Amino acid sequence: MNISIQDLLFRLAATAIICAIHGFVLAAAAGYAGDPGPGYEGRRSLNPFDQMDPVGAISMVVFGFGWIRPIVLDPQLMRQGRFGEGLVAACGIVSILCLAAVASFARQPLIQMQSGSLTLNLSTFLVMLAAQSIAFAAINLVPAPPFTGAHFLSVAFPHRLPNARLPRILPYAFATVLIGSGLAGGLLAPLMRTLTRAIVGG
């Protein structure tokens, strides 16, 4: 796989923006719902280094799919209980879809200008940011750790998963196989096409 220096820098920048926004929104939504824990742990931050998971970030840059460092939520502190945990996770996913929409919208005036390498590069970056945002949102709907969708699984089966402690390597092994094998791209392609048509158009 040949990646130019410019593409690599664009992917790194998009990864940093996505991780920062996703983690911040999750922590802020959790605090609003009644769980201040993520805020105390420094996750209510737009610093991408506070949010990035090293393996997840590398996966985003290389494969286009990735995840942030998981955020621990305590539904017992939330006003809506387990349902609140699901709402917080949904807020995180929606925030990245909104980012994709903003990137797509911001690109429109640049298309009309069609002048200068700076304009072209910015337009190219916004296309990549929108596409990577959609891929990130799609993979994080998977209801398994280390993805944000793991919180949906906790909501659906609160008694079947009573603080289950998996060996730390298992979630990473699952994510690596899912993404590295190409299964993620194949399984999520229909969803990503639908989201792209709805958000980006075309």
Automatic annotation (TrEMBL):
<keyword id="KW-0862">Zinc</keyword>
<keyword id="KW-1133">Transmembrane helix</keyword>
<feature type="transmembrane region" description="Helical">
    <location>
        <begin position="169"/>
        <end position="189"/>
    </location>
</feature>
<keyword id="KW-0645">Protease</keyword>
<keyword id="KW-0812">Transmembrane</keyword>
<keyword id="KW-0482">Metalloprotease</keyword>
<dbReference type="GO" id="GO:0005886">
    <property type="term" value="C:plasma membrane"/>
</dbReference>
<protein>
    <submittedName>
        <fullName>Site-2 protease family protein</fullName>
    </submittedName>
</protein>
<feature type="transmembrane region" description="Helical">
    <location>
        <begin position="12"/>
        <end position="33"/>
    </location>
</feature>
<keyword id="KW-0479">Metal-binding</keyword>
<dbReference type="GO" id="GO:0006508">
    <property type="term" value="P:proteolysis"/>
</dbReference>
<keyword id="KW-0378">Hydrolase</keyword>
<dbReference type="InterPro" id="IPR044537">
    <property type="entry name" value="Rip2-like"/>
</dbReference>
<feature type="transmembrane region" description="Helical">
    <location>
        <begin position="54"/>
        <end position="72"/>
    </location>
</feature>
<feature type="transmembrane region" description="Helical">
    <location>
        <begin position="118"/>
        <end position="139"/>
    </location>
</feature>
<keyword id="KW-0472">Membrane</keyword>
<dbReference type="GO" id="GO:0046872">
    <property type="term" value="F:metal ion binding"/>
</dbReference>
<keyword id="KW-1003">Cell membrane</keyword>
<dbReference type="GO" id="GO:0008237">
    <property type="term" value="F:metallopeptidase activity"/>
</dbReference>
<dbReference type="InterPro" id="IPR052348">
    <property type="entry name" value="Metallopeptidase_M50B"/>
</dbReference>
<feature type="transmembrane region" description="Helical">
    <location>
        <begin position="87"/>
        <end position="106"/>
    </location>
</feature>
<comment type="similarity">
    <text>Belongs to the peptidase M50B family.</text>
</comment>
